Amino acid sequence: MADASPADDGGERGSAVVDFVLVSLLVVGLLLAILQVAVYAHVRNVVTASAQEGARFAANADVDSAVGAARTLEVVGRATTDRTAAGLVCTSEEEADPSGMTLVVVRCSGAVPSLLSALGDLLPLEVTGRAVKEGA
After folding, report:
1. Residue 76 and residue 83: Cα distance in Å, rounded?
2. Is residue 103 scored above 70 in pLDDT?
3. Section 93-118 average pLDDT
């Protein structure tokens, strides 16, 4: 009867540690990717809602249409971070739709901050908010 000695492991001593490290790196990378998608979806939804809010604010009868962009950046800054708001460029203008109504249109573009700051802002973002301008 031959007993397997601890030295006779077929050269696989310590391979469980290497396997654990490799699988852990894969799982952590996957987790970071999922979190980044969640952050992107959240920021996009916040900026979209803020652009709509800015357009509604600027569509009031006694408000200049140009203030919609500033209002949008203010709402984004309160809802997320000042860094996210600073990374956006928003414009506000009046446009006529095909039926002849005047719309206030707020357009924002920029990038969503990444979870790893070394990567910078990789994910582009462009949203538009519209509201019907009230008559004076």
Report:
1. 10
2. yes
3. 87
Q: Is the pLDDT of residue 24 over 90?
A: yes
- Structural domain boundaries, residue 87: 21-132
Q: Give domain status of residue 10, yes or no.
A: no
Average pLDDT, integer, range 69-88: 91
| Neighbouring residues of 46: CB distance < 8 A, sequence distance ≥ 6 | 76, 79, 80
Q: Is residue 6 part of a domain?
A: no
In a domain, 4, yes or no: no
Task: Tell me which residue of 127, 92, 95 sits closest to 111, measured CA to CA.
Answer: 127
Q: How many domains does the chain have?
A: 1
**Comparing C-alpha atoms, which of 41, 61, 60 is closest to residue 49?**
41
| 82 lies in some domain | yes
